[in-house]
Amino acid sequence: PKFWLIVGLRVLMGIFIFTIPLCAQLLYAIKIVMSDEPQIQEIASSINLALTEFLTSFNLLDLFLRRHRLQQLIDLLNCDEFTCFNNTQRNILERGVKFSRRAFLILAVGTTADVLMHMLILPALNHFETLPVKMELIFFDANDPAYFNYVCAYQILYKPTLITTFVALYSMNWSFMSCTSSQLDVLINKLENMNELVKITTVENSCDENEACEVIYKNCLLHHSAIIKFSRTFESTFNGQLSMTLIMSSCVIGTTALQIISIESPRENVTEVIWVLGFLIFVIGSLFIDCYLSQDITDKSVHIPTLIYSSPWLNLPTKMKRNLIIFIAKTQQPIVLKGSQLIPISIDTFTTIMNWSYKGFAVMNQMKK
């Protein structure tokens, strides 16, 4: 009974939270486009909300289908190479954890403010004469007084659940990327403080410097291999979400910009202007964090071969030098996270997306005229 109860709840949530609202908003957008006098502002607003909800639904479905890879990713967090560190290296990891918590808090506050503004404040200013989310329901008219209050209550209830899912998915993505970056910081810290580590290892293991160097380099090699495996598992788990985020963000940025300039009498609708502008900044900021974290991982991985070469290896035995050259050659391939194994997630990609968004906005704005 418990199993079927869980299945039933998931099916109901999938229908009433992730399917019906999205389809109803798409139908409403199509209805406006096909009308005799289409309102650009309403079309852009409907498309923005529909694309955002579609992105959340797609990401959740994609993660559900890749849940076994997600479990592998979580298991890798508990491997020995990711857990055995000194106090300095633990502080580096704690900074990454604090960043993840801060990013989650900012994301949660931003989305909560957006929901309050869209679902309560703006409708309240209009005395709840219209629904917070424009929908076209097939079986009855959502604006019919007999159904209006029920539909309005339904929208106010489903939206927080959807936004909570959005925040969880985004913050999970950022947390794993922050973890990869922090592990690279730890590896960089080891290579930069090689001389001190050699002295400490020599005393702890009661061995000479060559044996200590061999132990440390072996540890660094295993740590780097674990980071590579973790980043590849992350990419295979989230590459569909990353690529869809890039595509949907480009569309949402363009249509939101169009929505802003389409607002009639901006001075009389200051609250709406602030809300739409805040939504635009939020979408751009989320996209930038994705690209920045990925770029940070790539930059740090590129720096590792230089650090290895700069370490004290000149007096090592020939066999260890040969192994060290192989280690350097292995680390020369940078870690580049890609969406759908095709699109690199980087600052250059962010610039390209903003360029595409502006071009799309310019075309739509010209069509409006």
Question: Could you please describe the fold and organization of this structure?
Answer:
- The structure is a single chain.
- With about 375 residues, the chain is mostly helical.
- It has one domain.
- It has helices at about 1-35, 40-65, 65-75, 85-125, 145-190, 195-205, 210-260, 270-310, 320-330, 345-369; strands at about 340, 345.
- It has a two-stranded antiparallel sheet with strand order 1-2.
- α7 (about 210-260) runs parallel beside α9 (about 320-330).
- The longest helix is centred in the middle third of the chain and has 53 residues, at about 210-260.
- The chain starts with a helix and ends with a helix.
- The mean pLDDT is about 85.
- It comes from Cnaphalocrocis medinalis.
- One of its GO terms (molecular function) is odorant binding.
- It holds the Pfam family 7tm_6.
Distance between the termini: 59 Å
Strand order of the largest sheet: 1-2
Note the beta-strand portion.
under 5%
Taking all Cα atoms into account, the compactness measure Rg is 26 Å
Number of helices: 10
Poorly predicted runs are none
Attribute tags:
single chain, 369 residues, mainly alpha, two-stranded antiparallel ribbon, 10 helices, elongated
